[in-house]
Amino acid sequence: xxxxxxxxxxxxxxxxxxxxxxxxxxxxxxxxxxxxxxxxxxxxxxxxxxxxxxxxxxxxxxxxxxxxxxxxxxxxxxxxxxxxxxxxxxxxxxxxxxxxxxxxxxxxxxxxxxxxxxxxxxxxxxxxxxxxxxxxxxxxxxxxxxxxxxxxxxxxxxxxxxxxxxxxxxxxxxxxxxxxxxxxxxxxxxxxxxxxxxxxxxxxxxxxxxxxxxxxxxxxxxxxxxxxxxxxxxxxxxxx
Length: 240
Hints:
Mean pLDDT: 83
Distance between the termini: 22 Å
Low-confidence stretches: none
Order of helices and strands: HHHHHHHHHHHH
């Protein structure tokens, strides 16, 4: 595989942008490790679970059913449902990645599909160089897996409330990703505000609040993105 200077530059940029994501992941994964320990996983098992499934909601759901002694098929299904929103992100990325890149690069980008990495990928101008994703994932993914393993080892040494409070860093980091484009574009600002309000209503209204958080995200994403695409079509960017 020939790696160009552009690929190296994209990797460095991705690694730089992946540092705050990785630090946020470490904090959240630490709390995830405490949950993993409660269902009997050891640090190595937790590390492998996190490096092969970069998804907090999916892993929490998986660890929950592991604790109940559920069969493998049930664990697979609940993880698939909890992570279903990544299908939407992958669809968007498949249209943005450099069309000259082969299947192996598309699979590589797919491996690192997470909410935060997806956000910084979509902010890239023009076609997405997969080496940008590799750079971001090279720091973020190991930090996620290491956080889980260390959380398992730490066990109950820290109060659960303190460990859970560390997850605030991830939400702050995600806001830092969406606020700059929202300040530059009033349409994005409006859509972000509407999505916040709609998400709150879905979590409070009868019947709707009974829907799982992952499913709510899928419904709102498809609905709001579809309306926005129809009302405010974005001109195609020059990939050159």
